[in-house]
Amino acid sequence: MKIVALNGLLGYGYSKKALDVAFSEKVDYLGVDAGSTDPGPYYLGSGKSFTDRGAVKRDLSFALAKALEHKAPFIIGTAGGAGSKEHVAWMKEILIEVAKEQNLHFTLGTVLSDVSVDYVLKKLDGGKLIDMSSEFPADRNAIKDSTRIVSQIGIAPIIELLKKKVDVIVCGRACDTAIYAAPCIYEGYSEGLAFHMAKIMECGGMCSEPVAAADVMQGYMYEDYFELCPANPIRRCTVDRVAAHTLYEQSNPYLIFEPDGVCDLTNSEFTQVNERTVRVTGSEFREAEEKTLKLEGVKCSGYRTICPATVFDPETIAHIDEIIETVTEFIKDNTKNTLPENSYAINFKLSGEKESSLGIIMDIVGKTQEIADMVCALARSRMLHCDYEGRKSSAGNLAFPFSPSDIHVGAVYEFSVFHLAKVDSLMETSEILIEEV
Amino acid sequence: MKKLIDYTKILRSKNAGPLFITFDLIFNTKEDMEYVEKRLKKSDISKAYDIEEGKIDIISYGVVNSIKITFPRKNISGSLADNDIYGCQQHMPLANIEV
């Protein structure tokens, strides 16, 4: 069976020629990952995508036509970057636009995987919420304050839709591996090999050299092994690249944790079968006794205003800690009667070498944008003119690169939920919809 | 005594999800990997990153002559005190450890 990964992230681009090469022989499934938590909590919070709409549309337009022409089901994971229902709606809107422009018709399956605050609180109360990190324990108030929470679905809902013979599948938040493992497991191949191949393929051309997340990867699944070969003839897969890929962004290079269980690579073997192709054998799967889904939620922490500046004077740099303390105390005193307690947080983000120059970002997050603006203005003016022992540069301490010097960043989100939920069914958070486009 | 970075061909950091930071050290030879493997101490990493030793995982991955180090982020990705959302510039304290 042949499965093709369009690239490592929808909207990152790929060579159209490489896609043509991939489809010059029979392709059974086409997949692409469209999301990540790498860019942080903002995108889930705001409902916006970190990928560009135009770039996503370009990537989809060739791929959708190819997939439909060759009757290869096209699976898109984590729509819109963060996979909430708003992100899925955004992705569907682009798909429908492409379909209209090219007069394409297809059956679309959608999986929504949002969960409610109540769902998470019930898991917490039932002792079914597992912390992933000692530094991030479950917090009832943070859960309650969450604006959006999604669950990372595994292969189950995708297989459900493949059974229904849909042409295109758009998933909400999904495990990257589920996109490629689901069709392999649906077709009856080994789960160990399926999850291992999926883990490598989901980054597109990242496992090839020259390395490129922005290119097409081809996976060939057989009974006892799988093979990877990049579609673009300028790239090749090597044993080192393919084997090293399970190091990337993973906490353990031997184990890939999935909602269904764990894929164990201890006995995996990698062989170079020709100049551009690597074969993998021996990857094993152990089903988990208790199935879990990862939950990701965010809360709005306020509104941000920042002021970037640089200090070049070594005397000022030498006194920077003292200056920051003076400024912080001044703001506290100055706002004592005008601002409610705990209505802002201030961080001075410093970068650079103390010997040469120091970059400063005054970062203020207020309960409202007005509060952030006011505190930022106070911090900026007080820091600019802050005196210290032996100061010669008495006209000002800061070089501002911009006018206006203070910048509105807007709403700030932080992760409020990042835990595993024990589930009775791996489908319990999935809402499936099938429609004709 | 050499700095850790001088033994490696790749030394990188990256989030393993927003709650964890993971470091990959990839060596040119098996000998280099085994040399570092024997001498790199959790106590040095603990000091460099101000993280308890018990929270640090070190796993050798001989398939590609590499060592992986993972521990939880104190300031999780995107929290107000975080300065590196992707976690890909956190490797220098590790790179400068002498072994």
Largest interface, C-beta closer than 8 angstroms, per-chain residues: A-B, 36 and 31 residues
Into how many domains do the coordinates of chain A divide? 2
Count helical runs of chain B.
3
Distance between the termini of chain A: 27 Å
Rg over C-alpha atoms of chain B, rounded to the nearest angstrom: 13 Å
Mean pLDDT of chain B: 95
Shape of chain A: elongated
* N-to-C series of helices and strands of chain B: EEHHEEH
Structural class of chain A: alpha+beta
Oligomer: heterodimer
Please summarize the sheet with the most strands of chain B: 4 strands, antiparallel
Spans of chain B of at least 5 consecutive residues whose pLDDT stays below 50 are none
Count of DSSP E strands of chain A? 21
Helix segment count of chain A?
13
Proportion of residues in helical segments of chain A: 25-40%
According to DSSP, the number of beta strands of chain B is 4
Whole-Å distance between the termini of chain B? 5 Å
What is the radius of gyration of chain A?
25 Å
- Structural category of chain B is alpha+beta
Give a verbal description of the structure.
The complex is a heterodimer of chains A (437) and B (99). Helices cover 30% and strands 31% of the residues of chain A. Chain A is of the alpha+beta class and 437 residues long. Chain A has two domains: 249 residues, no CATH class; 117 residues, Alpha-Beta Plaits (2-Layer Sandwich). In chain A, the strands form four sheets. Chain A has a ten-stranded mixed beta sheet, with helices on both faces. In chain A, strands 5, 6, 17, 18, 19 and 20 form a six-stranded antiparallel beta sheet that branches. In chain A, strand 1, helix 1 and strand 2 form a beta-alpha-beta unit. The longest helix of chain A is centred in the N-terminal third of the chain and has 18 residues. Chain A is elongated, with a radius of gyration of 25 Å. Chain B contains three helices and four strands. Helices cover 22% and strands 28% of the residues of chain B. Chain B has 99 residues and is α+β, with helices and mostly antiparallel strands. The termini of chain B are close together. In chain B, strands 1-2-4-3 form a four-stranded antiparallel beta sheet. The longest helix of chain B has 10 residues.
